[in-house]
Write a structure and sequence with these properties.
The protein has 17 helices and 5 strands. Helix content is 60%, strand content 6%. Strand 4 and strand 5 form a beta hairpin. Mean pLDDT is 88; it is low at 349-362.
Length: 362
Amino acid sequence: MTNEERNTALYQKMFAEQDTYRKWLLAQPPDEILKHTYEYTVREDILLSLEYHDLTDAQASALMKSPSPLEDVFKEFESRETGYVDVVFDSMESRANAVIAADAEQRRILKETPVYPYPGSYARENGELEQYRASRKANVACKEAIETAIREHYHDNRLGKEAALEVIDAFGMDRTLYVLAATARHMDWDGRISRSNKDWARTVPVYEDTDTWGNDRNTEFVVSACHPGLTDIFLSQVRREQHLRTPLSDEEIKREAARLLSELQAQKEPNSPNGTHFMAEISHDFLARSSSRDTDRLMSMLPFQSMAFSGLNDRKGHFVLISKDEDRSQPLKKLRKSVRKDLQKTPASPKKKAAKRQEPER
């Protein structure tokens, strides 16, 4: 929707609101009509102001959320000292900006609220009902955001990856995965949820949480307003995004280096486009997750002097290339230790250790 279309839609909504107000006013006794003359006039001026000015997309969208935006703007205007037409529009902008700020603050609170995994009974016994209720509220909001994201990003029989990124950005990875795990566990009977996603969901602790009547409170944040097949696709997208954001382990770097060496050694003839080099493609998954430090550590394990890491003009991806004269029978080198990891594991000083071992005085 363009900015002009958003402003037009807001104007039409306010115009309809004013028309309803006018019909009500005309049905009142003359004395009552006179009492509302000022309000009616100002509301007309608000409409006139919107006809000659444009709000931003965010401001127009914020006012559209209200069932009575015209009344809201009038109240904002009435609370000010009058300076008129400019003040009318300024009141409109101020009200829209207040809604935007309130929405942003609410989003911040929801995103920063930690996931509380325990049931209400546990929270009550441990004096943690406030955390439990705040987390539950965020879970329900996350579930609704997932349903909205799927609805808005499903086009031409395809669910855009923006759907998952949008929800993760708003609620964080932990809560998004928690809500989806609860959903997959609840739908364990449904064949439209993949076996892989069901198996994964069972690894996530989602405690039973029943109310006084034995009803499952967790169903409040189960994704239910979407086709289960789309929910499954969305879950797979979120899990994939989590995988891409997980740092590579030493073992994964070693495994990729061993795979590349094996592929280079398996070639009988140079397989580069010009026939001068042996080459092997680095996995897309590795590149998607790796930092430059990870790539350096990978390359340090391969035992070749002529080695290069490069893309090819006529092919997608990145490749390790070595000269056809290299000795390809060499073994893999040991993975170079990460200096940063070693520094993070630096033991406490001898004095601190001695202090810990010191016996208390008697």
